[in-house]
Write a structure and sequence with these properties.
With 397 residues, this protein is of the alpha/beta class. It folds into two domains: 2-51 and 344-396, Urease, subunit C, domain 1 (Roll), CATH 2.30.40.10; 55-337, Metal-dependent hydrolases (TIM Barrel). It has helices at 73-83, 101-112, 131-135, 149-152, 154-161, 188-191, 194-206, 221-229, 238-242, 264-273, 309-320, 323-337; strands at residues 2-10, 17-25, 30-35, 41-53, 55-60, 85-90, 117-123, 140-145, 167-170, 212-215, 233-236, 279-280, 352-361, 379-389, 392-396. The strands form two sheets. An eight-stranded parallel sheet has the order 5-6-7-8-9-10-11-12. It has a seven-stranded mixed sheet with strand order 3-2-1-4-13-14-15. Bound molecules: (4S)-2,6-dioxohexahydropyrimidine-4-carboxylic acid and zinc ion (ZN). (4S)-2,6-dioxohexahydropyrimidine-4-carboxylic acid (DOR) binds at residues 61, 93, 171, 255-256, 283, 285, 300-302.
């Protein structure tokens, strides 16, 4: 069946921009043409609609398994759709960790049952011999390296990094940064400082990787610069762009790596506008409400972002360069890193995010199990109107 969505098309150059309709085949899940007038069934249209290539979050924690009380694949998927996302890549720090073929297979089974596209990074396995087996499992996007893997599993890390073309996502800190003496909220940004990120990037580079190294949630502008110098790709998280450490600390704003003092957020934003940052990725890290009300010294780090972040960033990027900036940093570029396509041209997958421009406030988390978030009451400039994945209409608001 032919269908159309019409509005302001916003894809990065050379894709279509300006008023128009994307016409697609719902059965084949492919864009057929971009026209001035709708063809076939008109699914959504309006002056106030923004049609983006389907948004992507390449760093999320959907949890599940024994951590399902914090979030599970289904609640995370619903939150992602409400946020306008069409593809997420899930992290392996589950319980048990997704670093053996058995747990990876179980996680993949759950992710495959979701309505949006969900990939998995595997954790560093306990032995070198498992690397190839796990890397070849369909749905595995690559591996995730955590600070402690650099010490506890360094031989396996070396094996992973020796694989040409394999996507390897690195949390850029050394295990020493996780010492409890740096946990005091008033001094976390200094104790757990930018030097740990630089040291981790230097260490990875010293292993002469053949893999495609991607540095995730860089919180310091110096980390972005260093990562690019070594030819790595890099993403930044919304919280490192939007927030500085609040006075008095508290658990709501506790994240790893920590929030940074000015001018770091401004410098990261400048690098993002200059094209040095490859993607925005949220590090959606849900925890149970009670956990986020605990003692800041010991409570778990992380902000649950999926329902809100693309629209919060849209408001910011709109003013700085237009919606195609969001399309680039939250769709086409991260999709390419995950070997996926997001675009609005004929032949592209019929996978879009359609927002309706309207000033609202984020009043409550509705889908994620993590209800305690720092952005309650924040102004949003759009509502999610429609999410289309491979021609299927997943959310019609
Ligand atoms: O803030 C964070 N939360 N940073 C991480 O690296 C892990 C994550 C989580 O899993 O909760
Ligand atoms: Zn994470």
């Amino acid at each position: 069946m032919r269908a159309s969505v019409c509005g302001l098309l916003a894809s990065p150059p050379p894709g279509p921009r300006g008023r128009g309709c994307v016409v697609y085949d719902t059965a084949r899940g492919v864009v057929e043409e971009v026209t001035e007038e709708p063809r076939g069934e008109l699914v959504a249209a309006g002056e106030d609609l923004l049609v983006l290539p389907g948004l992507v979050d390449m760093h999320v924690h959907l949890r599940g398994l024994q951590l399902s009380y914090k979030e599970d694949e289904r609640s995370g998927c619903r939150a992602a759709l409400r946020g306008g996302l069409t593809l997420v890549a899930d992290m392996p720090n589950t319980s048990p960790p997704a670093s053996t073929p058995e747990v990876v297979a179980e996680k993949l089974r759950r992710l495959r049952s979701l309505r949006l596209e969900a990939l998995l990074y595997a954790g560093v396995p306990p032995s070198e011999g498992l690397v190839d087996d796990i890397a070849s499992m369909p749905g595995v996007a690559g591996f995730k390296i955590y600070p402690r893997d650099l010490v506890e599993r360094h031989r396996v890390v070396e094996r992973i990094l020796s694989k040409p073309g394999l996507l390897v996502v690195v949390h850029p800190e050394l295990p020493e940064a996780e010492k409890s003496e740096y946990e005091d909220p008033s001094s976390r940004a200094a104790g757990r400082g930018c030097h740990w990120e630089a040291a981790a990037v230097e260490y990875i580079a010293s292993l002469s990787p053949e893999a495609r190294v991607h540095i995730t949630h860089a919180s310091c502008s110096s980390t972005v610069t260093l990562a690019k110098r070594y030819g790595f790709t890099v993403d930044v998280a919304p919280h490192h762009l939007l927030y500085t450490p609040p006075r008095g600390g508290g658990c709501l704003y506790k994240v790893n790596p920590p929030l940074r003092l000015p001018p770091e957020p401004q410098l990261l934003l400048k690098q993002l506008l200059d094209g040095q940052v490859d993607a925005i990725a949220s590090d959606h890290a849900p925890h149970a409400p009670g956990e986020k009300e605990g003692d800041p010294l010991t409570c778990p780090p992380g902000i649950a972002w999926l329902e809100a972040w693309p629209r919060l960033l849209l408001c910011l990027l709109d003013r700085l360069g237009g919606p195609q900036l969001l399309a680039s940093l939250a769709s086409t570029r991260p999709a390419a890193l995950l070997s996926r396509r997001r675009c609005l041209d004929p032949g592209c997958p019929a996978t879009f995010t359609v927002y309706q421009r309207a000033w609202t406030r984020f009043d409550a988390v509705r889908e994620s199990k993590a209800r305690r978030v720092p952005y309650l009451g924040a102004r949003l400039c759009a509502e999610t109107r429609l999410v289309v994945v491979d021609g299927k209409h997943l959310m019609l608001g």
